Amino acid sequence: MVGERVAKDPWSDWNDDDPGNFQPGDTIGPYELLFPAAVGGMAAVWAARLRRPNGSVQIVAVKLLSDAMRGDDDARAMFLDEACTASRILHPNVVHILAYGEVRDRPYLAMEWIDGAPIAKIFANQKAKRALLPLGWVLHVMIDACAGLHAAHEVRDDTGELLNLIHRDVTPENVMVTFDGMVKVVDFGVAKTRARAQISRVGAIKGKTGYFSPEQVMGGTLDRRSDLFSMGVLLYLLVTGHTPFRGKGPLEAMQQIANRNPQPPREIMPEVHPELDRIIMRALAKNPNERYQTAAELRRDLEQVSLAVREGYTDKQVGQLVRDLLPGVAEARKERIDQAIDELDRILAERAHPQKPQAARPEDATEVMLRRISMLPILQDGPEATAEGASSDAAPA
Question: What is the pTM of this model?
Fold first, then answer.
């Protein structure tokens, strides 16, 4: 059936890698593939159309395990297991999983399409203006992210037992904000797989090590409090402009996480509210017992700071800032999807009602469609993967 979350902004890391042996117009269950929106080493994400019986249309994201990974039994099992687990998270601040299963011997999941950008991109665009994001915006987004994270931590199985789901990869890339101001925590489950690989061997560390918790770095037992440490790192970044652990490379950053206490934000920026400084430092405690014990507890304290500083933002204001920092992107994306749908409908009509015997075969029509889609704008000004910049800045759809 279905399950798993959206990774990041579906267009955040567009490239020309092979999206697998799927083509526009192919169907994955009830989902009609439009175009590959992101391609990575583990999976490809496609924009797809879902046509409902009542005539309504929904744009969704379909994630397919890559050719390179589909022969790995462990990767396949993990993909589907985590999809199943993530599909249990029903909260407006977590990407909604629509369905999951296998097609053509390849695991897939269908999920909510997120029309927005990761915090990494938003932060980078604001920093390019030599400014930090407004504190009221930061607090609103982080409060909502805490709500989504807490919902994930509280997921239970059919017997009512906690599943002890841990994100393990809370980074600027995995918290997204839509153009309407909705906050979405993304990339559950796959993060667990990555976390195991990230420190699998010396010299081959991958991922945002600057957001690891001390217990993650040292290979200890993890629980939800590890995610709360990562939330503390993200808060520190948004409030001060850089992360608290900035080694010359991943190993040095990890050593700092394990052994060095971060400089309090108020020592860097005296204007930081004292209570916010306390919240961040508590979230970054080396000892998990000295941290916040739940995301709900962290959220409550952030809400109190928001009231104290009197810089509350509405969802509309949050979304408007995203639009302002990515001018024209929302409109360009809509136009691209509309064009892809028009082209798909034209090709499907030609397949269903060929005009004459020598009309193009379905395969030929697909080639034409691929060529035309390739000519559509790629939106290079969209939310590319910029968490690298955000985290390296501490050392980017």
Answer: 0.81
